[in-house]
Amino acid sequence: MNYVPREELEWRTGRIQQVLRERELDGALLMENMDLFYFAGSMQQGVLFIPSEGSPLYMVRRNFSRAVEESAWENIVFLKSFKQLQGHLIEYGYGKTRAVGLELDVLPVNHFRRFERAFPGVEFVDVSTAIREVRMIKSAYELDLLDRAAVIADKVFKAAPALIEEGKPEVVLAAELECLYRKLGHPGVGRMRAFNMEMFFGHLFSGENGALVSFLDSPTGGTGVTPASPQSAGWKPIQRGEPLIVDYGGNYEGYTVDQTRLFSLGALSPRLEKAFLASQKVQDEVIKKAAPGVSCGELYALAQEVTAEEGFGEYFMGYGDTRVKYIGHGVGLDFDEFPQLAEGSEHVLEPGAVFALEPKFLFPGEGVAGLENTWVVTEKGMKKISITPDDRVIL
Questions:
Q1: What is the mean pLDDT of residues 223-236?
Q2: How far apart are CA 207 and CA 158, in angstroms?
Q3: Could you please report the per-residue DSSP string of 30-65?
Q4: Which structural domains are found in the chain, ordered by start?
């Protein structure tokens, strides 16, 4: 089991501390699991206080001994209740707090009220966007983990053709691929930050099920096996001549590389074939333009232009009122990180930003044609992290 090195935590913390100082905040109190892991190297239940200057204080409710083992920080204390928060901060020299940042995009109201009671008179400010912007830029350490995740994804995707059989239910194929992922070290969970959004390994569906969207803010959905989890693979048998989409994230040490490949038993219809080629063209044109300083909103607009030229604009990233307003999303510890390649997005590409570009076309009654790859912005332009060949696989 690997632990996040101290120097990596110092780099991450230093970047958010700079923001705290610029905004004249005394510190930030963090509780969200992936924020805890990102800044503490551990996601044991508790509260991490990052001061504007100095070393963080990790106050842990459960499990304290594991937090001590996992985190490279030396200031780790047991937290019995929220009433102890201020006392712990005073003990470590952080008692004079006037303005403190919180993750107000995800923090439950009940917890917010508890913070108010624990810190009377303190002003609480939302720092969630700043945290996501810090996490958007990946370090060399994180990029190495993403490269390893890409290798895992490649092994699973290359194993898929031998498992695809006519008449096999989608969920059975999904289980077989997910088993391979688990054997290769996938933690078995996909994380999303947005409220009420959730993901497992990703999506797998065939034929018309691919064009069935769900509650998820995604161009694709699938039936799932129950209305209690209405997305991804269902009980539909795989048939010849229809598109089979495998949209799974390879994961290594918590870091996800999101990618999609198109399979089929036999040839696809001419329209689906043409749409797949159009998705490749969208990817090529967007990546050709993408570079440091380029607006993500511009890239979204470019993708719309290309799809209109190809004659598939009304089916791009959904259809009718089910269309989503993005073509790509940041990935890392979550499936929905910054930057967002979306309509009107103000995000500007920076070196170290990692995103999944997923040009897809949904045809009601037929299915999905498209692909997805994960990319990193470098000083010289774009570098592809995904290593599985883009070509559709006809069996």
A1: 96
A2: 21
A3: E--HHHHHHHHS---EEEEEEESSS--EEEEEE-HH
A4: 6-135 (3.40.350.10), 137-394 (3.90.230.10)
Q: Is 213 helix (H, G, I), strand (E, B) or coil?
A: coil
- Number of helices and strands in the chain (H, E): 10, 17
Q: Which two tokens stand for residue 275?
A: 């749409």
Backbone dihedral angles phi then psi of residue 23, each to the nearest 5 degrees = -95, 5
Name which of 390, 342, 387, 389 is nearest 149 in CA terms. 387
Q: How confident is the model at residue 225 (pLDDT cuts 50, 70, 90)?
A: very high
List pLDDT tens digits, range 163-214: 999 999 999 999 999 999 999 999 999 999 999 999 999 999 999 999 999 9
Query: Could you read off the pLDDT of 245-269 as tens digits, one per residue?
Result: 999 999 999 999 999 999 999 999 9
Query: Which of 164, 44, 49, 156 lies closest to 101 in space, CA to CA?
Result: 49
Tokens of 18: 């700079």
Q: Residues 6 or more apart from 145 whose CB is under 8 A from it? A: 252, 253, 254, 255
The pTM for the full model equals 0.97
